[in-house]
Fold this protein.
Amino acid sequence: MVSQSGPTTPLSNVLPPLIFGCATFNTQFVKDPYALDSAGLVHKALSLGVRAFDTSPYYGPSEELLGKALDAPFVRDNFSRKDYFLLTKVGRIASSEFDYSVSWVRQSIQNSLERLRTPYLDVVYCHDVEFVSADEVVEAVKELRRIRDEEGKIKYVGISGYPVPTLCALAERIKEETGEPLDIVMSYANFTVQNSTLLTKGVERLQAAGVDVVPNASPLGMGLLRQCGPPVIDEDWHPSPKGLRAAVLQASNFCDCHDERLEIIAIRYALETWLREGSRVGSRGDPASGVPWERESNEANLGGKKLGVSVMGVSSSAELERTMQVWRSILDGLENGQETAIRAGRWKRDHEWSLNRQKAVQILTEGIQEMLDGWLDYTWPSPPPDFVNSRDKKAQDQLQDEAAPWLTPAASPEADVPDDVVESKERIHIPLR
């Protein structure tokens, strides 16, 4: 039996600042997740230096696909389990179904361990905490910490959700009631070109509550901040109102007039700015700067400072390559960036180019925000006013997984899509530079 009280190493000392978001392995983002070359994406990400993967039982077959990819010979032969981080969640089962009970938390952890084919989970969040009561969240956190301390199946515990005030209030309460702060609090769509709430209303409170790391997820606002608008597969699920979408279209047209794409500017601005502004609640883990085949530490390569942590999802090999190109260009603009670029085999003047690009992105961001005037820092209600938790009361001996609402492998055999094949319109295209 493991016996400890909290992690011995702060998460901020080890977590990579770039996390691969696996929510895209899900029917909300692709028609058939089993037809996505998820294994190829995971293997390529590891080859490019990515060392952290974020998933959830709520993301359809995401955990299953990620676990299968990480159990492949390529990964087993080239990486040990301690070389990468797995972040998952508990509590959210479906769009209107939540269960934060102690019994379900235990079962959910066991399910995740089996799907991800791992003996332990690096980080476990309570998922979308605003949909349940504060009491339920506190009890779930306590159970996760019990599993951490007594069973050793979890290393770090946190919460995730959308409304920043709710996240802050819960972090404060958990510290006050338990005497131990949360290791990590993740918010999504709250630090973008449209919304800076996580920075202006969140970081200071979360830091005061002792939270170690605050990742920024979904820098495109769940796909809102794109030329083509939010992703629509079978239904329009995005909660943004029509007025905001119209303003985003105006911002996209503004970018077109300057020979740019809205998503290009939005992603670079969010990644680059959060890397700096989120550093107070950032991390010093492997930055994936492209120095070949070295287990990196930004202590050696990037000046030793913490970097703000971001979660980025991709759904094609080309998107992954472009994302990494942008990420490394951003790192080239940091302290010691010129040295890092040279060691990674990039151009000796990429540091200078990155700084110039930063200025151009900032100018265009100001123009985008002029187009979004009236909608800046707007947040949609979460949960919606008519939300009702549909989770049925179940007996303790019936803690079984629900029938999967997504397509099964038998119904949709895996397909490895070559890079030179024209991609389906159903895929999310994120051109970058």
In short: The longest strand covers residues 154-161. The chain has 13 helices and ten strands. The longest helix spans residues 350-371. Residues 393-397, 406-433 have pLDDT under 50 and may be disordered.
